[in-house]
Amino acid sequence: MLLKVEDIDTYYEMSHILQGVTLEVADKEIVTMVGRNGAGKTTTLKSILGLAPIKNGSITFNDTQINKLQTHQIVQKGIAYVPEERRIIPGLSVRENIKLALLKSKNHDREEEMIDRVATHFPVLKERLDQDGTSLSGGEQQMLAIARALVTDPQLMLIDEPSEGLMPLLVEAIAEIVQQINDSGVTVLLVEQNIEMALTISHRAYVIDEGRIQTSGSSQDILADEEIQRRYLTV
Amino acid sequence: MDLSVIVMQLFTGLSLGMLYVLLALGLSIIFGLLTVVNFAHGAMYMWGAFIGVFTVTWTGSFWLALIMAPLGVGMYGLIVERWLIRPLYGRDINYPLLLTFGLQLIMIEVTRIFFGTSDHPFNAPDILSMPLEVMGIFYFPAYRVFLIIFTGVICAVLWYFLERTNLGLVIRAGTRDPLMVRALGIDMNRIWWLVFGIGSALAGLAGILAAPIRSVYPEMGVAMLVECFVVTVIGGMGSLPGAIVAGILLGLVSSLTTLIYPQMADIVIFLVMAVVLLVRPSGLFGKAGLLE
To answer: Which residue of chain B is at minimal alpha-carbon distance from A49?
Structure first.
């Protein structure tokens, strides 16, 4: 297993958000976590990254325990993060956003090459290299957020709500890109509100509700199971 | 009133403004990145001046003092951040504020114990002591010309550092979204540490530069700190262009007031602050909601 999350508990202030979450991601998989708003999806990703430190349990990546490390150390081990709402850094150009991601990665001295690679996935970003990253459209910002993760050649990408606020055509485009990234050998842990999209492109899925994994299985089975949809996924 | 008197006074104001600029830049870069309001900044400025006095007494070299003051105070800043301020991150913004306020009192007291409470004379090097003739009409003290040019160079170097180097990129990014910067694999603790050191070094540099034109004594940083808070508030907390513009502006306003109506000299900067805050509550270049 590339990533193993075992029985973790995470708190925000006094509230117990994750209550014994366990999940696994194998090399080269796309695994998705689906569930309602506030179910604990984003918190799980933040726990893996050390942004929301866990109280109990353990997280291992490539058989190394990472839950006692600091966020930057975890990221440097080969985990890249595409956060909810993109978090493009204001005041920085598109190029600077990419450069920032490269600084501590193994590709730090290959800026031009990496920008060319970004251009093959997202030609529009290359045209806007000197523009302020936050001046891009929502879809372009999502591309930049993905590009920022991609240029570090991660083993695992944690992607949080990539389709949020995008129009249907762009949602499809993003889904395609996530699949392409996976085809190129990157393992993906995807969190999505758009259940259909997430279950269509992923291999396996975990259904999370009230801070606990309720069920898991192949994405096709979960997509077909109306009972699961009704109990955990409809609003 | 004679034109040359006004020009002289503007010029004096500009050199005072440059001291404000250096101090406010240090305060602002620390606040912008760490959200720490450094109340020890004035005492660091004072230590810069004392390190200057010390170095010149021992070696006779002003130029060496110009290096030793920022270096010494900068290293002191690194120690302060690492051992005193870092344990307070994640707590309320008032914790580091109280800590640095107490630190300032200790620093002043320690200086009193070792160097007494009286003024320490400090002369500019001979080469900068003669008046400089400008356009055949005005005579400006060469040291003040040096101070203005030197501070201008420091601002340019700082601008280059922030806009054109990798570390500068990280600092700019960390000012806006430190969490995301960490999630891109960068150790923000190290950056905060370095920036606190850089900000402290700027205070030390301002101290040695001020020494030849202002008196050197343990409380010299107290009033200066208040004035520099006014500068950063007018310029916008955390804004570096704001620190430069507001620093020069206040230097000029304060000198001109001294010339025209000296009774107002001590309070005019607070009036300017009140007016600016009424019109733009987050300062001239400030971003709203930095503390929210």
So the answer is: B183
Contact B62, B125 (CB under 8 A): yes
Name the token pair of B114: 């070792």
Nearest to B180 among A76, A89, A152 (CB): A89
- This model of the complex carries an ipTM of 0.93
- The domain total for chain A is 2
Closest to A89 (Cβ–Cβ): which among B166, B176, B189?
B176
Domains held by chain B: number: 1
pLDDT, tens digit (0-9, with 9 covering 90-100), for B96-126? 999 999 999 999 999 999 998 888 888 888 7
Query: How far apart (Å, rounded) are the C-alpha atoms in residues B33 and B287?
Result: 13
CA distance, residue A36 to nearest chain B CA (Å): 25
Q: pTM of whole model > 0.80?
A: yes
Q: Do A164 and A227 share a domain, yes or no?
A: yes
Residue B288: inside a domain, yes or no?
no
Q: Is residue A83 part of a domain?
A: no
Boundaries of domain holding A216: 3-78+155-233
Of A113, A132, A153, the residue that ends a domain is: A153
- Does A167 contact chain B (CB < 8 Å)? no
Chain B residues with beta carbon closer than 8 angstroms to that of A89: 173, 176-177, 180-181
Cα dist from A224 to A11, A199, A218, A219, B53, whole Å: 33, 10, 10, 9, 81
Residue B126 domain-assigned (yes or no): no
